[in-house]
Write a structure and sequence with these properties.
With 410 residues, the chain is an alpha/beta fold. It has helices at 54-74, 93-105, 118-130, 144-147, 170-184, 198-214, 232-241, 252-264, 280-286, 309-318, 328-348, 357-365; strands spanning 9-14, 17-22, 39-47, 80-88, 109-113, 134-137, 163-165, 189-194, 217-223, 245-249, 271-273, 294-298, 370-372, 375-377, 390-396, 399-406.
């Protein structure tokens, strides 16, 4: 692991973006610069920094900030100073599209970390690809983003060569959850609910396919409106169905109230979801009745990885106001993947950035390989992470606790 320490910064807000630059004293808003060189490279960040999913988005932004800061402190790329520009997409594809256009227009941006939501990624990919600007998501899990819309029909085609991700996909996450629910939890009758969005619907579909293949029965399906928090009608349907488990494809702002209302309706059964519900915010929203609810999330528990101890300690020492949440380690590694690609390009061009730096960084990303916070960081021919590990978490004593880690065996 690289040894990294803290540095001083100042933060300014301009045109809806958080731009972090260097100064001689520490500012609580975070930032990244230690004067490591004369050329500035900006790492863009796109995530929901406000709204219901801001807990995850701010964890992403802070983790990228920490990576840039430590690269500067280390003078990791000779002659280069890294800074970040974090834009708020509010989990909306339209905002993500606008942010992508803005980041492309800034010639100092040589890589982007994000977004959180697969639906937002869909709106950004072509804009980045047309500009040959590399994008590395720590959180997108929809398989079509890297393998094309016919990924489950036997034809995998990579749509955009500039798009990469450090998280694994729902082609693995959904079936992994189904195996745990059926084989380990011994649940045989599931009621499947999703929020109709790209991530939630896709995840629910891969879970359902595997659960039925294992011999389980889907006793009901329903879609919810993510704009509401009243799920009493579907909760009554769950109670009447005789299900012994609920699988929800979606995110914690809806999953928490949904879990609470299902229990209140008399169905004392666990709600299971993917990485979109793996947040402390889910527990707050679901209340005391959430004990026993389950979530899968990408990778092994960061807090338990020897490779992540330094990251956890440095994040805490930096004093960020928000937790790094589910995607902190992956965001940190995504930023370092960009830093490693920039380093390769600079070294191959006699210590300076070439005129076609964006294209060269995108090209270099395909061969990036290093030991990161979350394990080995590398990408396959589709831009997907080669690290396929997942973890099941259960709520115990008001907190998430890991109960099983492994990989999906299809």
């Amino acid at each position: 692991m690289r040894q990294r320490s803290l540095i001083a910064i100042t933060a300014t807000l301009a045109a809806g973006a958080l731009t972090l630059t260097a100064c001689g004293s520490r500012d609580d808003d975070g930032g990244s610069d230690s004067g490591s060189g004369g050329t500035t490279v900006t790492i863009g960040v796109d995530a929901p920094l406000t709204g219901d999913l801001s807990a995850l988005g701010l964890g992403i932004k802070n983790s990228v900030d920490l990576a840039a800061k430590q690269a500067n402190e280390q003078k990791y790329v000779d002659g280069i100073t890294f800074k970040i520009e974090a834009l708020d997409d509010q989990a909306l594809p339209s905002s993500g599209q606008q942010n992508a256009t803005k980041l492309v227009a800034d010639k100092e941006v040589l890589g982007v970390v994000g977004p959180l939501n697969s639906s937002v990624a869909e709106s950004m990919q072509k804009i980045f690809d047309d500009a040959k600007l590399v994008e590395v998501s720590p959180a997108n899990t929809n398989p079509a983003l890297t393998q094309g819309t016919d990924w489950n029909g036997g034809t995998k085609t990579r749509p955009y060569k500039s798009y990469f991700r450090t998280s694994t996909t729902d082609a693995i996450q959904g079936p992994f959850a189904a195996q745990y629910v059926y084989n380990d939890s011994k649940k045989k009758k599931v009621f499947v609910i999703d929020d109709k969005k790209t991530y939630g619907a896709g995840l629910a579909a891969t879970f359902t396919e595997e659960f039925k293949k294992l011999g389980g029965t889907v006793v009901g399906t329903q879609h919810i409106d993510p704009e509401t928090k009243d799920f009493s009608a579907v909760a009554t349907q769950v109670k009447s169905s005789g299900a012994d488990v609920v699988y929800y494809g979606g995110e914690y702002p809806q999953a928490g109230p949904l879990s609470k209302q299902i229990k209140a309706a008399g169905a004392k059964i666990p709600l299971v979801g993917g990485d979109g519900i793996y947040s402390g915010e889910f527990i707050k929203l679901a209340g005391d009745s959430a004990t026993g609810d389950l979530a899968t999330s990408v990778g092994a528990p960061v807090e338990e990885l020897a490779s992540a101890k330094e990251f956890v300690a440095n994040y805490k020492a930096e004093g960020y106001k928000e937790a790094f949440e589910a995607y902190g380690g992956y965001s940190y590694d995504s930023a370092w993947a960009i830093i490693e690609a920039v380093k390769k390009v600079v070294e191959d061009n006699d210590g300076k950035l070439p005129d076609d730096a964006r294209a060269k960084v995108t090209e270099a990303m395909q061969n990036v390989s290093f030991d990161g916070v979350t394990g080995k960081v590398a990408f396959d021919e589709y831009g997907d992470a080669t690290n396929k590990q997942l973890t099941v978490y259960a709520i115990e004593n008001g907190a998430w606790s890991s109960v099983k880690s492994g990989t999906y065996t299809g």
